[in-house]
Description:
This protein is an alpha/beta fold. Helices cover 37% and strands 17% of the residues. The protein contains nine helices and eight strands. The protein has helices at 3-8, 25-34, 57-64, 81-90, 105-114, 160-170, 185-193, 203-206, 211-226; strands spanning 13-15, 40-45, 71-76, 94-97, 118-123, 141-145, 176-180, 198-201. Zinc ion binds next to strand 2. The site of D-xylitol-5-phosphate has 21 residues, from strand 2, strand 8 and helix 8.
Amino acid sequence: MNKEQSMDSKVVICPSMLSADSTQLGQQLLAVESAGADRIHWDIMDGNYVEAITFGSHVVAAHRKLTSLPFDVHLMVDDPDRHIDNFASAGADLLIVHPETCKHLHRTLQKIKNLGKEVGVALNPSTPIEVISYCIEMLDVVLVMTVNPGSSGQKFIDSQLKKISVLRKILLPKTEICVDGGINPSTLKKCLENGANNCVTGAFLFNSNSYADAINTLKSTTKLSTT
Length: 227
Ligand code: DX5
Ligand code: ZN
């Protein structure tokens, strides 16, 4: 990427509703939209694959009426095939699955594609890149987990930077690398330098005093890292 191109490219900021105030999810969504969020990230946890239980498809569907921002649905659930239709109908634009949870990963990705949705795979910190070797052409997004899945507010795991740089070399140019977990301006900068495009933000954004300032800071981090 040359300097001119890199100055034009903007990081896409995806707030995770898991970190929002649960008593006012709709207002929080509208607040981050006004502050400049590009997509909304829904962390779906089933109490099995990860300990926590979070949002059902009815919650996603209810919020679909509030905004036209794209919805990312990050499925941290066992056997996601059972839930893909429901979340697609609820208004997901991108469905992300973890390879460990799929009986037949290729088939699951094909199912998402056949529904007309964008296809994403999430790689845990310990998950090798090889699991997606033969599915690469199907992928719109690889979500690199820079923490272990299950909760917000965890510390960024530096070893994932190497994974990002290897992925950038083997993925198709159109495939987005989004980083998820422990993102702040300093960790985002390292991710971008290694080839990530976009980020999920939870605690950094929702604990800030100004959502607009937090989002602008993340977006300007991109520019600093690419000049
Ligand atoms: C972790 C989730 C993340 C996380 C992001 O399982 O996938 O989306 O909640 O939150 P922060 O930015 O606080 O790590
Ligand atoms: Zn997530």
